[in-house]
Amino acid sequence: MGYSDKVRNVLQNELQGIEDAGIFKKERFIHSLQAADIEVEFPLGSSLKKVINMCSNNYLGLSSHQEVIKAAHDGLNHRGYGMSSVRFICGTQDIHRELENRVTEFLGTEDTILFPSCMDANTGVFEAFMTKEDVMISDRLVHASIIDGIRLSPALRDTFKHSNMKHLESKLQLHADRRLKVVITDGVFSMDGDTAKLDEMVALCEKYDAMLFVDDSHSSGFIGKTGRGTHEKYNVIGKIDIITTTFGKALGGASGGCVSGRKEIVEMCRQKARPYLFSNTMAPVVVSGVLKVFDLIRGNTERRDKLEENANFWRKGLSDAGFVLKDGDTPIVPVMLFNAKLAQDFSRDLYDEGIYAIGFFFPVVPKAQARIRTQISAGHEIHHLEKALKAFIKIGKKYNILGKTKKEIIAMYGR
Ligand SMILES: *Cc1c(COP(=O)(O)O)cnc(C)c1O
């Protein structure tokens, strides 16, 4: 019984502080499948509301696809529910190896190893092959899971300013004498929707004999003309030494992740990566679903093409209406509001209009950079986007921010 009133008070005060700062997160309960149209209970206990989902990672609309569901059922029937083992003891089925080979082929790499999640892939990979003699040089906006992976590795850490190639080059020069050098970036940056300049990064890495690591969680399946990822968009397939990605977003949306790349690095992960060695194998039902996802997208760009058209329509609609957006050409379209309270109020009003899109603010994004991050899906039809656009414009007018610059919005609402 160490949970005294004093301990409880400490934590209650801390939680109150989070509420007072206006950054308390509350879950919204979806009572339907994941899709463009969902039924949501929010706040807790209220009756269900039909809304259009504008903030899921269901980029290809495959999360509830009938064929994926059927493949998952088949997997369940033929390979069971669980393996009750990590991979290296007795948790590897034929379908795990099959999925690894499919990913390798799709990404154009040498080999692949599955992890329970991409978070696990990112936390395991650096520690698995880097030592004190090495250096990790990361973009300052990389995903939180990469930051955790960097923390767990004994290698020296350094960063470069977001997408700043001059700064990266100076860091590569600074660390020229390290045994191994790894440059680390997201492919698509999840909060801003911009892409890493992989062509320039590959050239720099070749010049300074550094490896390149790319987390393509927000690109695998739809970025590039056949959806392989940012390395396809920048024409550097085969030149990325380490790619990590998730099956929890476009590729079915259930769970699971991987490290794909140079075969020695994948082998080091099999020998040493702790989330691979000490956490349960990917469930057969999920593996079966992801295999079907690759069947659906391999050699068929219909879904990623529709996603691109939808995203262009949406970005243009918001821009024409006079919203401040972040530059980019991905399905992640952040509507900038700068002020945290405004972002929350805007999100609440959207919800009243039947549009589900969440406000993001510090610490998820930098201070004074609050926003509504919208994410487009191939599961959206134009009528969804038109309805959402109407709601955004109505609320934009209410807060008088249409056609206003960043400066003007901050002058009205503060940072
Ligand atoms: C979502 C995400 C992850 C985590 O993926 P999971 O498989 O859900 O753990 C890792 N990296 C990036 C860039 C992501 O966006």
Structure explained in plain terms:
It is a single chain. With 415 residues, this protein is of the alpha/beta class. It has 2 domains: 31-60 and 301-413, Aspartate Aminotransferase, domain 1; 66-297, Type I PLP-dependent aspartate aminotransferase-like (Major domain) (Aspartate Aminotransferase, domain 2), CATH 3.40.640. It is built from 16 helices and 14 strands. Strands 4-10-9-8-7-5-6 form a 7-stranded mixed sheet, with helices on both faces. It has a 4-stranded mixed sheet with strand order 1-2-3-12. A hairpin with a 6-residue loop joins strand 1 and strand 2 (37-41). Helix 4 (94-107) packs parallel to helix 12 (284-297) and helix 13 (302-321) packs parallel to helix 15. It is globular and about 55 Å long. The model has no long low-confidence stretch (mean pLDDT 97). Pyridoxal-5'-phosphate is lined by residues 117-119, 122, 143, 145, 186, 190, 215, 217-218, 246, 248, 257.
Lay out the secondary structure.
Blueprint: H1 5-20, E1 29-30, E2 37-41, E3 49-53, H2 66-79, H3 87-90, H4 94-107, E4 111-115, H5 118-129, E5 135-139, H6 144-152, E6 156-160, H7 165-174, E7 181-186, H8 198-207, E8 211-215, H9 230-233, E9 242-246, E10 257-261, H10 263-272, H11 274-278, H12 284-297, H13 302-321, E11 332-338, H14 340-352, E12 355-356, E13 359-360, E14 370-375, H15 382-398, H16 406-413
Parallel strand pairs: 3-12, 5-6, 5-7, 7-8, 8-9
Antiparallel strand pairs: 1-2, 2-3, 4-10, 9-10, 11-14, 13-14
